[in-house]
Amino acid sequence: xxxxxxxxxxxxxxxxxxxxxxxxxxxxxxxxxxxxxxxxxxxxxxxxxxxxxxxxxxxxxxxxxxxxxxxxxxxxxxxxxxxxxxxxxxxxxxxxxxxxxxxxxxxxxxxxxxxxxxxxxxxxxxxxxxxxxxxxxx
Length: 138
Known about the structure:
83% of the residues lie in helices and 0% in strands. It has 138 residues and is mainly α. The longest helix has 38 residues, at 100-137. The radius of gyration is 22 Å and the shape is elongated.
């Protein structure tokens, strides 16, 4: 890494306490809460700060409004089985203007995709099983 960039990162991390306060405030404003994982990661400011910056920009891309981004986060959290994240993002979606019906539909869409993952894998395995059974009979 270039010395200039190392110095920039070092200077940023020297402001870790102030940055963490801002990150907590911004997170509270965006999500309505400061998630547990963020509070624990704060023990390692060099990790938490950069992770939070990535999350903020990822959760609020320029191409999507906050409501849409949070509905996508709801679907992703549901699909990943991340129950705590799901609660946080359901509340954030509601705060961003999503209706209860939109939040439910995001969960149902995630469930359909999850079901497809199970069926695609299981039915391929069944197809192999079936083909081997036919070979044995022949």
